[in-house]
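cron nightly-structures :: item 1 of 1
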Amino acid sequence: MQDNRMRIAYVHDSPLHESLVTDYRDSNHLVSLGFTDVVISDQMSGCLYGVTPELKQRIESTIDSGLGVWLMDDLFTLPIDSDAGCPGREESWELTAEAIRDVIESFPQIRGLVFRYGETFESTNSDVKRIDLLRCECIDCSSMDGLSRRRKVIELLESVVCREMGKRCILRLWDLSEEGVHANRLLQSKVLKKWGGDPRFFVSVKHTITDYWRHQPWNPSILEEGPARLIEFQCEREYEFIGMVPNWLGPEWSQGPIECGERGRTGIANVRPKDWAGSWIIPIGGGWSNRHASSELWADMNLYTILALTANPERDAEEILSEWISENNLPEESINLLKKSSELILRLRYLDVWRVIANQRWMPSENWFRDDNFVPGACAKIANTVVEQGMSDLLRSERSLATAMARSHLIEAEKLPTCEHSEFILSSYRWALQFAEWTEETWNQLLDLAPLSRDECKALLLRRFDENSLAPLSVMD
């Protein structure tokens, strides 16, 4: 393993819920796992205008454990009483630069700062406001297109964080849609031409071309020239049952997504940044739901895998899984079952019929099921369109296959020798079967009653919950 390759841990809290309680916040535990760095302030709590004694104490104790510390925030984050916020006004950039200087002067011992833009959350600090610098269309911004705004971000951060203050800076190239700088390789290349060459400036991209969904190609921008790159990985996938069901991603991360026809051609073993700074790893968290898994076992399985692949990207993923099974005292016989877990996720969560109909990557399966919620509008749209296209039997067959697969996996799990994790393992597979059976019947009813309005679909989903609860899930308002 290269000494300078970072393994950065980041527990991603939900904007709607309390901060996650997890061992993955324990800096000594992170060091023992092999992490080199940790993000201890994110876009919810922030760091700009958030200099507090509590944050200082946390920084110092984390550094004492041997980890490098990063603080993160969104652009623009500005004082609540300021009129600034428009990217066409120089005051917005000047206030941001001053806030950055203040943070670094207050915490000179940190490794660096992380920034992102294109998505904004309300801060827990009531004295600040968050503004999306890409959306303002006022008269002052009329001469600044999206490319100019993104380029100015790079100029500001490289100039102030790196050159003036002497710290590292990571720009997380994340924004929404297939047209954003994260997914659009050409746009990303144009934006990064403004990088002035400071080696302390990094960019970070997800390994998927858009979000952490399946049916996503390996991010082609990983090979882009320019600043050193981090690749981001999410261990407990927010759109794929948030740790309640096993979901081993080793082959996808190592050899590329098989559902995209890339197996053996992409993945970290075959396509890495030319200047690879390391991995940004989210052990748990992400999305908008609360956490429901009673154990971090499945998150740990993926975490162990990506740390091992970061250390040696050409290692055999199955060998890594076998090693993790042994170290966690799971039965040796569980390897064949866990190897198939990502196939089960594909059957449970995604709808091939809809993927063929919609032919788009930004939101596979229209998010009919998101985090811990069923989405009535999406369910109605899918049911109505599938019926109109005469493809109802195909969707019914898909859901029947998902149920059969979940039942088969549960039978295999029940045959495993007993271990300390048996209760959680069996509960995971039982819940997977319950989800499969519940959704198979629900889709049958939706297709029978189509065309449906959103309200009619919501009423049907709520009725299904009254008849047969699927805790901890619910129906989106």
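cron nightly-structures :: done
The mean pLDDT is 95.
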